Amino acid sequence: MQRHQFETYLDKVFDWKQLRAAQTEGRQYPIYPWLEVFDAVFLGSACQFGPLHRIETECRHGALHKRIGNLSEDMPGYAMQRQNPAEIFDLGCQVAKQLKRNGVLQSDWARGRVVAAVDGIEICSSYCRCCDACMSREVERKVDGQLQKCTQYYHRLSAVTVVSTPFPIFLGILAPELESALVSAGR
Fold first, then answer.
1. Is residue 122 part of a domain?
2. Total domain count for the chain?
3. N- to C-terminal Cα distance for the chain?
4. How far is CA 55 from the centre of its chain?
5. In terms of residue numbers, what domain contains 183?
6. Residue 95 above 80 pLDDT?
7. What is the pLDDT of residues 146-157, one digit of tens each?
């Protein structure tokens, strides 16, 4: 298979094959190889395909068809949910460090500093625990017209993006424990 100029650039500047190969498989019995799922999500993001449905379409009939092959939109979510978020975040940080060394992250308004934004969202809130990773909090809600204290379970996702560049660079999604460690370390 012929490699595209973008992938050749990634190998030359970041030793991308090596970084990619260091990603470990988080699933016990994978049907679809993790590196191909990772490539689909990474290349789909690099091509600004947006939602997973668009990445699925491109894998079935479009630009990623020869490179990745058929991939359902559920597969990346399932595979990524079982990966180590710290490992993926470290990969993003390695890429950002190399970009900084190469002078790509220069910005006039940031006065030589690299500025990253951390933004989060809470998802899947429920009054029933769905997994061991659920976070919890006490909330008041009306039940049969009466205010009651209940335990609400939820998940939190936080994304880190370098924003001091002419184009934003997505570093990764953080687990809650990584988010607090990042903020306290000033990383």
1. yes
2. 2
3. 39
4. 15
5. 106-187
6. yes
7. 898 999 998 887
What is the distance between the alpha carbons of residues 10 and 162, in angstroms, rounded to a whole number?
19
Does residue 61 belong to any structural domain of this protein?
yes
Would you say 53 and 76 are in contact if contact means Cβ atoms under 8 Å apart?
A: no
Average pLDDT over residues 99-105: 80
Measured CA to CA in angstroms, residue 53 lies from 26, 115, 127, 159 at distances of 23, 31, 30, 20
Whether pLDDT at 3 is above 70: no
Examine the domain organization and report whether 76 and 110 are in the same domain: no
Amino acid type, 123: I
Residue 57 lies in a domain: yes
Average pLDDT, the chain: 80
Q: Are 75 and 32 in contact (CB under 8 A)?
A: yes
Give this prediction's pTM. Answer: 0.63
Residue carrying structure tokens 């308004």: 109
Q: Residue 124 pLDDT > 80, yes or no?
A: no
